């Protein structure tokens, strides 16, 4: 192996190590805000919630927008946290009483748990879709401003998801 090839191999190993460390700290850790908020959503709905991001695909789609790869993972987990929080708020909001009932009916028709899939969308805004038997949170295909700034758009998407 040439020196350049060896260096490239080390860079790739460091890249994956950074991502894996960030995923472990900010996603899989049971005390991470994302996991706590997902559990709270499950408690509100009385259902288990499953969300297993395909980190390899997400990182490959967003890699060019983030110099710091751990920031990429943190941003994605913040979007998931905001989504779960807004879904829980919507489920308990008197103005959206039917949302929680419709959500449970659609979930229980096909699953025993709420499944949230996370993908990278094609535009600059996050959005939510209902796909046959699960929710899909589409992330912006860019380095977004702080994810909290998208909370209103995420909540609106959650509220409207069953109206389409």
Automatic annotation (TrEMBL):
Annotated signal sequence range: 1-25
Keywords: Methyltransferase, Signal, Transferase
Molecular functions (GO terms): methyltransferase activity
Gene Ontology biological process terms in this record: methylation
Protein name: Cytochrome family 51 (Sterol 14-demethylase)
Species for this entry: Fusarium mexicanum
